[in-house]
Amino acid sequence: MRPCAAVDLHCHILPGLDDGARDLDDALAMARTGQADGIAAICATPHIRHDHDVRIGELPARRAELEAAVARDGCNTRILPGGEVAASAAIGLDDHELAAVSLGGTGRWILLEPSPGPLSDALDAVVEELAARGFRALIAHPERHPAPDLAQRLRRLIARGALVQATAAFLTDEIAQPGMTALAREGVLHVLGSDSHSSRAGRPVALTRALDVLRSVQPTAAHLDWIARAAPTAIVRGEEVRAPF
Q: Do the domain assignments include residue 80?
């Protein structure tokens, strides 16, 4: 399946910032890979956490530079604002800073990176605090936090208004796939991101193969367009999003 106008909600495509794209050529290759996979827009989500010196105030200019270079390269994939905000850093950011790194730059949805290890009540508290300040959380890469109660923890976060973003490559990884499809069957995976860091190694800017896997799983099989396009588009527009499953 090739997604129609899909949106990649999680990608470290801004060059020379964190552990993502090394240089402009790397970033351009990532954008071209995304376009070839049917991705119409990529959220540039550099790490916002204490071990990366990413300066929020510099991000609009850095993104504009990349977007202009992508256009000059003949690539139609749009580069949208965003950030991968560590749960440990989120509460320390003021509302203006959070809005600046929100997905799509609309001041609504925050891509939230849980702290290492199993999910805990501390993440619930961050999601609740963000909600009290007018933000909603998109929980990044749950596959990094395996635990017997993972699905239960995700359901609790969803009940607090969060959605969950799975990393596409893990749905096609032989070892990780069974756990990922189990979460999909539980109805606790909503949207995808490539979480790509480079064109030269690691995860590609691609969602198609992951969507093919979700095609064989219920309840996601009936909602592939919502997963790939409708929900991510609403997120980057700052709209309210409720899962149909």
A: yes
